[in-house]
Amino acid sequence: MTVNEQRRIAVRSTVERIRNIEATHGVTRTGLEQIELQLRELAGHSDWFTENEFPAPEQESEDTSFVYRISEDPQDNRFALYIQSARAPTNTPAHNHHTWAAITGIRGDELNRFYRRSNGGVEVVGSHVVRPGSGVSFLPDDLHSIHITDNEAVINFHMYGLGLEYLTDREYYHAGSGSWKVFKDRSNIVDAGYVSQ
Ligand SMILES: [Fe+2]
């Protein structure tokens, strides 16, 4: 079996187990912990998800991250699994997803800050550095932000209950104006469906 075939089987069976976890536990903290565990195990095969195959944008580029879509259910766009390859300076505002989300580390450090709503804005309530062997997960209304200071590619799995293009009402807190806004469509999604097909 080639390496690509091994990877394809592992990705497909991971997604299948995640479908089953959601079916059993619904969108709950318990279910998300198990989903995160599945993704951490897959992320352990870092030789399958290299910077060479999934590069971050060049230093000259305005974009600092690409999200490579490696799996998504074709009939309803659910269970969307991406490899995010990002470099410094990456700083997102605090935002929610309106679906569940899980992030696990493959290479490098991604600082996640956690927030709660406070006085119309947000207040930091914690943080976690996602790196190989660790992860974070979020219920649909949970808030987080992402910060990357490494000039080398930082590579992580980002998985969502629904594909990013369909999360059209994700909100983020715009600190400059002190108001909540809606995320615009992401243009930096790269189709890498060959990984699971
Ligand atoms: Fe997010």
SSE topology:
Blueprint: H1 3-25, H2 29-43, E1 65-71, E2 78-86, E3 90-91, E4 101-107, E5 110-118, E6 121-130, E7 135-138, E8 143-148, E9 154-162, E10 171-174, E11 179-182, E12 189-191
Parallel strand pairs: 1-12
Antiparallel strand pairs: 1-2, 2-9, 3-8, 4-7, 4-9, 5-6, 5-8, 10-11
Helix pairs in contact: 1-2
The protein binds fe (ii) ion.
Q: What do these coordinates show?
A:
The protein has helices at residues 3-25, 29-43, and strands spanning 65-71, 78-86, 90-91, 101-107, 110-118, 121-130, 135-138, 143-148, 154-162, 171-174, 179-182, 189-191. The chain is globular, with a radius of gyration of 16 Å. It has two helices and twelve strands, in the order H-H-E-E-E-E-E-E-E-E-E-E-E-E. Strands 7-4-9-2-1-12 form a six-stranded mixed beta sheet, covered by helices on one side. Strands 3-8-5-6 form a four-stranded antiparallel beta sheet, with no helix packed on it. It is an alpha+beta fold. Helix 1 (3-25) runs antiparallel to helix 2. It has one domain (3-195): Jelly Rolls (Sandwich). The structure holds fe (ii) ion. Fe (ii) ion is lined by residues 95, 97, 101, 144.
